[in-house]
Amino acid sequence: MIKNVLRIALRNFRKDKWFSLINIMGLTIGITFSLFLIFYIRDELSYDRFNTNADRIYRIVTYVTEKDKNTNFTYTEAPLAFQMKKDYPEVQEAARMLKRERTLFKVGDNSFFETKLFYADSNIFRIFTAKFLEGNPNIALVEPKSVVINRTTAEKYFGKNVPAVGKTLHTVYDLYKVTGVFEDIPENTHIRYNMLISMSSDSNNYNQNWGSFDYFTYALLKPGSSQQAFQKKVDQTVAKYVKPVFDPFGVKMRFYAQPVVDIHLHSEMEREPEELGSMSYIYTFSAVAFFMLLIACINYMNLTTARSARRAKEIGIRKVTGSGRGQLIAQFLGESVLTAMAAVVLSFLLIVLLFPVFNSISGKSFSITTLLQPFNIFLMLGIGLFTGLIGGSYPAFYLSAFQPVSILKGALSKASGNINLRRTLVVLQFSISMVMLICTWIVYQQLEYMRNKDLGFDKNQVMTVVVNTGKYEPDKILAMGNDFRRLSTVADVGVGGSYPGSGNTNLNLFRFQTKTGHLDKAVECYGVDAHYFSALGIKMAAGRNFEPADTSHGTMVNESLVKHFGWNQPIGQRITFPGDTAVKDYLEVVGVVKDFNQNSLYNPIQPLLFFYGPLNNTYIMKLNPGNANKTIAQVEAVWKKYFPALPFEFKFLDEGLNSQYVADQKRGKIFASLAVLTIIITCLGLLGLTAYTTQQRQKEISVRRVLGASVGEIITLITRNYFWLALIAAAIAFPVAYYFMSKWMKAFSYSPGISALPFIVSALVIMITAILTATFHSAKAALSKPSNNLRSE
């Protein structure tokens, strides 16, 4: 029977090559890009699961509640890990990681800046899984000035297949001994590291301060331990050690044991070490993958039922000669599955070709190895089987139900299948395409708005240069800044401990005077010099800029801080420090700057406080218009004068700011690509459907032409149904798209809102595309000679 099904299916494929080609093309596109989305989703869901004990690893995070603000961040205090291991028997291991600043390492002539670099406790590899190629993971990070590196870093400094353990890495002022080499950590992890330095190398390693937050803290629980029970123990730690420190200032602290496998998709913490994903995108891409397959299946259903009259006599004769309905169902399902499997084979080849393109868009690193994983092979076969059965189910049951007497009398020869079902399926296709177009338009509209919004400072022609030697060198920093200012290509040079978009601000606790009394509040702050605001084009709102005499007490604030504390006269306001009852140390406001976006547009502008700090390590240079290469060369020459051993590196501020939205840009590109592909699949289906519709109505069209109907009237007759179907689809798509995009835009503190334009244009695009697609075959039918079609009448 199977052999017979295959023989008939292949015969039908050869008999109607156009129909088969459209079906296979539609299914190939649908399956290919559904698989890409499934690969993306699986990768996102797999974060941190490569760790052997992933389900027992927790990161401790901090929730801070103040009278007027809540803050959640990933850092905890230095003593927490030690205290948990000491106090709680269910904690098998507890360890810390501390982000180290970007550092230059050198071996011979090879020197590189390393950024994926952390201090780590010696037991970190008893929590996280790493395959060691050299060294012993249990003792590699015990001694001070020891470092473990990944395979790529080892090859970069020492060469391939060259032992690295026992060799040294040089920084400007220190030597580190390589005590281990581990295989590169998979990219699907919430914290990526190429190098780990022993925590004992950090001078603050034994800090017992419960008021300072700098460390990522992890706990590995013993098998069978309960997260809820552990959380109660963590709450006890807060009550015993943290509350006495912060309660006097009206600040409430709470620790939360966050499963490490939940971090990438569920965390809403500040100061994450890596870019996060989002469950909302997982749900969205899952729906899109399903709908792309559904649209491909709808095409198959539409075309197969539309051409039912072409196979009516075959079905009638087979029934008369004894074929049962089950055999006919098997035949049609077999043809459908065979078509789907042919599409799967083509999809495999297409995926291999498009992996580099998809990787560049999505930021992933898929390869043919990904495709050949047993799970993915079974997935492809399963999708082929699913698509074949779903796509062929209705045609199989519909066509097999034909009555042989009616068929052989010719009653079905004038039919073309269930027209209402086909119209419903077309409306569904149009609706999905419209929703995707609208969503894509709004995503790009939001991203464009963020790129062009006035941020309160001038981001164009601004270069940032960071000095990072591992040592405080005020004389060189001051002298180099003065040399930068003497360059003809540089308009202004400011110095700061941070700059917009860098994320390097400090969070310190201050005591502010309000209308209702004093308020202790944590505020973001950093040091700047007198040129910082002018270099960025930030305007003064009140008072004056910094002066050299402001070193001890002078401070500046932004408008948001003034509004937050209700100051009518901000100049001269004094800011003190909690616990300083004698008020020996204080800050006095000398100036107020207009608000600017220190952080991304996901966040509203927060109160900011600035110290006078002319010896910070970051230069912000406003460049004169002109030859950028010449300017860079001049700046580099000055750099080499003071730091000849350090490679010169710089960033342009606008590029750094745009990188804050790279995750949404990647997802936007994926969504835009899928929207276009959805329209292509829909058009393929419409092309085939219109071909069969005009073929069935060919004699009617010829009669109308003989009676005087123009080509335009014939085209209108065939295509007007698609206009009404597109209107119905718009009525469905508009509220669906509005609902989902309204939820998505809540993630942004600033947005242009949702206008009617994306909805109107998307509906017009679908209408015009559908009508043009249908016009192709309608015009072809209208222009054919009526005599050729009416010879038999």
Characterization of the model:
- The chain is α+β, with helices and mostly antiparallel strands.
- The protein is 48% helix and 18% strand.
- The chain is built from 23 helices and 25 strands.
- Strands 1, 2, 3, 4, 7, 8, 9, 10, 11, 12, 13 and 14 form a 12-stranded mixed beta sheet that branches. Strands 17, 18, 19, 20, 21, 22 and 23 form a 7-stranded mixed beta sheet that branches. A 4-stranded antiparallel beta sheet has the order 16-24-15-25.
- Helix 1 crosses helix 9, helix 7 packs parallel to helix 19 and helix 13 packs antiparallel against helix 19.
- The model is unreliable at 413-417 (pLDDT under 50).
Give the secondary structure arrangement, pairings included.
Layout: H1 2-15, H2 17-45, E1 57-65, E2 70-73, E3 76-77, H3 80-87, E4 91-99, E5 103-107, E6 110-114, E7 117-120, E8 132-135, E9 146-150, H4 151-158, E10 168-170, E11 175-182, E12 195-198, E13 213-221, H5 227-246, E14 252-259, H6 263-266, H7 279-306, H8 312-320, H9 325-362, H10 368-371, H11 374-399, H12 404-408, H13 419-452, E15 462-466, H14 474-486, E16 490-496, E17 506-514, E18 517-528, H15 532-536, E19 540-543, E20 554-558, H16 559-564, E21 574-575, E22 587-593, E23 608-612, E24 618-623, H17 628-642, E25 651-652, H18 653-658, H19 662-696, H20 698-706, H21 711-745, H22 757-783, H23 786-789
Parallel strand pairs: 7-12, 9-11, 18-23, 20-22
Antiparallel strand pairs: 1-2, 1-13, 1-14, 3-13, 4-7, 4-13, 5-6, 8-11, 9-12, 10-11, 15-24, 15-25, 16-24, 17-18, 19-22, 20-23, 21-22
Helix pairs in contact: 1-9, 2-7, 2-9, 2-11, 2-19, 7-11, 7-13, 7-19, 9-11, 13-19, 13-21, 13-22, 14-17, 19-22, 21-22
